[in-house]
């Protein structure tokens, strides 16, 4: 009898877990499926090669938005990855316990949780208004600010995973602290740090809000980094909220491309760094 | 060649806790000196003072003198000192990102030795000394952590020897190993004895009896007794040493 009750309880628990998992998966696959269904039809070569066309005309594409997103993510990475990794190294290796590093760590946590639109407003006020125009630089900077705390945190976590005994082994061989960090600790944590950076890239490449009033958007090619530039998320937003059916189609195609980009970056982050030794 | 160490009135602190309470000890060159004593008596702390590793922890303090080959270690650059005073830790800790070869030559390579042939020669010599060469010579570029625990520990010994220290500190180097690996390490220590000053912490009294020329008994941060191993084990002068050795406490 007792055993029967126990089995029944087990079965009940298991069904609850399974049910929760299914509830979590349905929207996930729902989103993917919906975007696939609507986006695949509109996806063609012209989407990747053509500029947007005026409404009513067919054959428009998002070439400028794809390139724009790549450019701004590149700018963000060039700023955010070095700054984030170096700060992460400083906080774990040189200054783990002081009030300063505690304050920085707290600020990073807060910054991670801040809605990204606020970063956009700040850059709008501090950069766009000062320079007098929307630009790829402003957009890239906004994305960098979102990236930095993510990378600081992931770098810190990865460095903390490197056991203290590894550092002591370095010192005990008469290797200086700087070299121990650079040549022993960092390589040990490298895969994790790079993975963290790539996930941060994936995360910002879909950001829309901070680009709305920093990069603005552009129906044509931007001729320099100092003028408004198109991006996939903003273009999707504008097309999806327009009243035109053709543009809705393009928005779906853009969504599909964006999702694929992010999936590819995520996969690369996970699989590119398999162990180098057998 | 080994170098003599003489420790004078050494006190070591962790924050407010005085862990070593004035140690005076002479450590002979080309000798194996064992340190025994109950857990928490300060053996590791003592050994870590000798390569100035103790002071790298935040909140620690050291008072007193340690003279290595006539010169105070506190007058030397700690990074340079650690090339003369090598250390092997309790748990094997090869560098995970490095191959077996890179592990062995890490100390010399990161300190500027770039010549491939020299590095090759250093690696082979050190691995032979650590009695590991035959087991790994065909897979030098496998990861250091692909080895068994006992092999990893010998790899760490080879890595320490590659820097050509005069003093080798070993903090329970065999405590994580099985009896066969332990025998390997003990043989190795006996062979190294002629050319190094070896200081080995051990909980295993048979081990101390097997390999050490002299033995020091620590208790509560003090050096109770230090003498020839045979004397300490058969004819201890201090009652507390006798109690510990006969297993009456600790
Ligand atoms: N990092 C540390 N911070 C504070 N106290 C410490 C630290 N390391 C050791 N101690 C304390 O110092 C004393 C001596 O420790 P130590 O590690 O030298 O002992 P031990 O003789 O090596 O012991 P065992 O045989 O268990 O390795 C202990 O009371 C320990 O609690
Ligand atoms: Mg110890």
Automatic annotation (TrEMBL), chain A:
GO molecular function terms listed in the Swiss-Prot or TrEMBL record: phosphate transmembrane transporter activity
One GO BP: phosphate ion transmembrane transport
TM region positions: 12-36, 65-91, 103-127, 133-152, 184-204, 250-273
Residue span(s) of domain ABC transmembrane type-1: 66-269
Database matches in Pfam families: BPD_transp_1 (PF00528)
Membrane-related topology note: Multi-pass membrane protein
Cell compartments where the protein resides: Cell membrane
PROSITE patterns reported for this sequence: ABC_TM1 (PS50928)
Statement: the UniProt record of this protein carries the keyword Transmembrane: yes
GO cellular component entries: plasma membrane
Chief subcellular location: membrane
Keywords carried by this UniProt record: Cell membrane, Membrane, Phosphate transport, Transmembrane, Transmembrane helix, Transport
UniProt record similarity statement: Belongs to the binding-protein-dependent transport system permease family. CysTW subfamily.
Designated name of the protein: Phosphate transport system permease protein PstA
UniProtKB/TrEMBL annotation, chain B:
Pfam families documented for this protein: ABC_tran
One GO-annotated biological process of the protein: phosphate ion transmembrane transport
Database matches in PROSITE patterns: ABC_TRANSPORTER_1, ABC_TRANSPORTER_2
Any one Gene Ontology cellular component term annotated for this protein: membrane
One MF annotation (Gene Ontology) recorded for this entry: ATP hydrolysis activity
UniProt xrefs under CDD domains: ABC_PstB_phosphate_transporter (cd03260)
Keyword tags: ATP-binding, Nucleotide-binding, Transport
Domain ABC transporter positions: 2-245
Superkingdom, taxonomy of origin: Bacteria
NCBIfam families according to UniProt: 3a0107s01c2
PANTHER family tied to this protein: ABC TRANSPORTER I FAMILY MEMBER 17 (PTHR43423:SF1)
Protein name: Phosphate transport system ATP-binding protein
């Amino acid at each position: 009898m007792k055993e029967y009750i126990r089995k029944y309880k087990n079965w009940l628990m298991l069904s609850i877990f399974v049910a929760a998992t299914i509830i979590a998966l349905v929207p996930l696959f729902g989103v993917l499926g919906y975007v696939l269904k609507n986006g695949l039809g509109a996806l063609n070569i012209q989407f990747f090669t053509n500029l947007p066309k005026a409404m009513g005309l067919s054959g428009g594409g998002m070439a400028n938005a794809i390139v724009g997103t790549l450019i701004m993510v590149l700018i963000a990475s060039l700023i955010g990855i070095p700054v984030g990794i170096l700060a992460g190294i400083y906080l774990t290796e040189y200054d783990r316990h002081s009030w300063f590093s505690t304050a920085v760590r707290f600020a990073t946590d807060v910054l991670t949780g801040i809605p990204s639109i606020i970063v956009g407003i700040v850059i709008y006020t501090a950069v766009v208004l000062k320079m007098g125009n929307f630009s790829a630089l402003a957009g890239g900077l906004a994305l960098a600010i979102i990236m930095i705390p993510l990378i600081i945190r992931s770098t810190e976590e990865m460095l903390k995973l490197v056991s203290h005994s590894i550092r002591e082994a370095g010192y005990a061989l008469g290797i200086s602290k700087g070299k121990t960090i650079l040549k022993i600790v960092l390589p040990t944590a490298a895969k994790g740090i790079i993975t963290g950076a790539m996930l941060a890239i994936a995360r910002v490449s879909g950001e829309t809000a901070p680009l709305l009033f920093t990069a603005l958007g552009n129906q044509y090619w931007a001729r320099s980094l100092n003028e408004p530039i198109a991006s996939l998320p903003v273009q999707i937003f504008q097309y999806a909220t327009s009243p035109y059916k053709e543009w809705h189609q393009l928005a779906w195609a853009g969504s599909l491309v964006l999702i694929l980009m992010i999936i590819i970056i995520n996969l690369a982050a996970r699989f590119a760094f398999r162990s180098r030794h057998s | 060649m080994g170098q003599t160490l003489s420790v004078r009135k050494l006190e070591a602190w962790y924050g407010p806790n005085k862990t070593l309470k004035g140690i005076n000890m002479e450590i002979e060159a080309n000798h194996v000196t064992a340190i025994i004593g109950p857990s928490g008596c300060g053996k590791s702390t003592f050994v870590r003072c000798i390569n100035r590793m103790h002071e790298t922890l935040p909140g620690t303090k050291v008072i007193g003198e340690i003279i290595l080959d006539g010169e105070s270690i506190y007058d030397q650059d700690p990074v340079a000192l650690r090339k003369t005073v090598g250390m092997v830790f309790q748990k094997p800790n090869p560098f995970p990102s490095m191959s077996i070869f890179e592990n062995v030559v890490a100390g010399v390579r990161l300190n500027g030795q770039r010549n491939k042939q020299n590095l090759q020669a250093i690696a082979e010599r050190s691995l032979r000394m650590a009695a590991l060469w035959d087991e790994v010579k065909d897979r030098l570029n496998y990861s250091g952590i692909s080895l068994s625990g006992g092999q990893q520990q010998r790899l760490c010994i080879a890595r320490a020897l590659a820097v050509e220290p005069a003093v080798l500190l070993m903090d329970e180097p065999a405590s994580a190993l099985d009896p066969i690996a332990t025998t390997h390490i003990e043989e190795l220590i006996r062979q190294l004895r002629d050319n190094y000053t070896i200081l080995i912490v051990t909980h295993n009294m048979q081990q101390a009896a097997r390999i050490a020329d002299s033995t020091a008994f620590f208790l509560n941060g003090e050096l109770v007794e230090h003498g020839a191993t045979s004397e300490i084990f058969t004819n201890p002068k201090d009652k507390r040493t006798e109690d510990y050795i006969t297993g009456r406490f600790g």
